[in-house]
Write a structure and sequence with these properties.
10 helices, single chain, 2 domains, 421 residues, 24% strand, Alpha-Beta Plaits, six-stranded mixed β-sheet, Aminopeptidase
């Protein structure tokens, strides 16, 4: 293969800058799910001139979907001139809350040196823009290609993807009969291929007590103290056990090679929204939400039963202890083999563009590959895109312009390998 596709992609530097800025300036905040249709309609205007058939799809009835904040997705497809495989680039268009600590306009798309700043620049509007210019460069050089190309921008990845890729997978959009190769341009490094991710299990634990006057706590049963006993067992028994379980998956960073658990939230007693003086009450309820990330060598049923066993042991040994345990969500680990066609193709393209072999990683958290794998039954899927994972969700988030061009060249070269005779 010659370097024409690389030169054509490099020539689109101004184009990728403008696209990324435009995307950042549409504040698709999740929650609550703002401006989802706006960004989909913008992408229709971008893709229609390249003869894509664009469909706007609302995830009716999905978690979070409402008339006030409908969950809109776009799937754009360009057919080739003859039969062949379909290559699909999937990016999520939602971004997380801005948070504190910004020194720039989070939706300004400001440029300094080789960086574009803004919420979602890295995660993952820069990756979306890179995939678009890769496809544009390919189509300009090779309008007579085999198969099909799809580009999607989907909702709610930041809250699980159920109003986006999960919904589309349920409707057959990722059926292996219509899509054969999927690349998700998440910010995992331009010279790395992400093969999959750990699993996750989220649950709410409530400890129960009995309300009484705070001046006579011995007449009540303090649910907060019971939760303290739960947390103590976590600290002394569960967390050390999890840290000792290591995976053979190439999870990054190294700390995520083991099983982990985070306490997402805790609340007991009087509602936090009340601004007056506290009532004199013994709390009769305390709740925590746990975020348990598990490795592929673990079984989801063992993950949940381990927590239940710990709580049952406390119930047997601690006077007055009672609880409820409710699962909130579960995600099974996903892992694409190195021998998969899309892995081999992108690896060869990285070698072409960057003159080095890629490293292979797995993500500490899940992303939309889980739905393509489990619901769509499509295994030939990876995450590959520009950006540094550590910048995601941080203040002054940014994406490197050169990194976007380099990644776009890899994607364009991969299209050559997959769709040209």
């Amino acid at each position: 293969m010659d370097d024409a596709i690389l030169h054509r992609t490099e020539a689109k530097r101004d184009r990728v800058i403008a696209l990324t800025q435009d995307l950042i300036r549409i504040p698709t905040l999740n929650p609550p799910g703002q401006f989802y249709r706006d960004i989909c309609e913008y992408l229709v205007k971008v893709l229609t001139p390249f003869n894509f058939e664009c469909k706007l799809i609302r995830a009716d009835g999905a978690p979070g979907d409402s008339d006030a904040f409908p969950r809109w997705n776009i799937v754009a497809r360009r057919e080739g001139t003859r039969a062949g495989p379909c290559v699909h680039f999937n990016s999520h268009h939602d971004v997380v809350a801005v948070g504190e600590g910004w020194t720039r306009d989070p939706f300004g798309g400001e440029i300094e040196d080789d960086k574009i700043f803004g919420r979602g620049a890295c995660d993952m509007k820069g990756g979306l823009a890179a995939s678009i210019i890769a496809v544009e460069a390919f189509l300009e050089l090779y309008p007579d290609f085999a198969g099909a190309i799809e580009i999607s921008a989907t909702a709610d990845e930041e809250s699980g993807g159920y109003g986006g890729v999960a919904y589309l997978a349920q409707k057959g959009y990722f059926d292996p009969s219509r899509v054969q190769h999927v690349i998700i341009p998440e910010p995992l490094g331009k010279d790395r291929i992400c093969l999959g991710h750990r699993g996750g299990w989220w649950a709410e634990i409530e400890t129960k007590g009995e309300i009484a006057h705070g001046s006579m706590p011995f007449l009540g049963n303090c649910a907060v103290r019971h939760m303290g006993a739960v947390l103590e067992r976590f600290e002394h028994d569960l967390l050390p056990a999890l840290a000792a379980r290591m995976t053979d998956m190439p999870v990054v960073p190294d700390g995520a090679r083991s099983s982990t658990m985070n306490i997402n939230s805790i609340h007991g007693g009087q509602a936090e929204s009340y601004d007056g003086l506290p009532a004199h009450c013994v709390p009769d309820s305390c709740r925590i939400v746990i975020d348990r990330r598990f490795i592929i060598e673990e079984n989801i049923e063992d993950v949940s039963s381990e927590i239940e066993t710990l709580l049952e042991n406390l119930k047997d040994t601690r006077e007055g202890f009672d609880y409820e345990l409710q699962e909130v969500n579960r995600v099974i680990p996903s892992m694409t083999p190195k021998t998969a066609p899309v892995v081999q193709t992108v690896a060869a393209s990285i070698s072409d563009v960057m003159g080095k072999h890629p490293s292979y990683i797995a993500s500490p958290g899940s992303y939309d590959q889980k739905h393509i794998d489990r619901i769509g039954k499509l295994k030939n899927c990876i995450a590959y895109g520009p950006g540094e994972l550590e910048l995601a969700h941080k203040p002054d988030e940014w994406i490197g312009i050169t990194d976007m061009i380099d990644s776009a060249q890899v994607m364009a070269r991969s299209l050559e390998r997959l769709l040209l005779p």
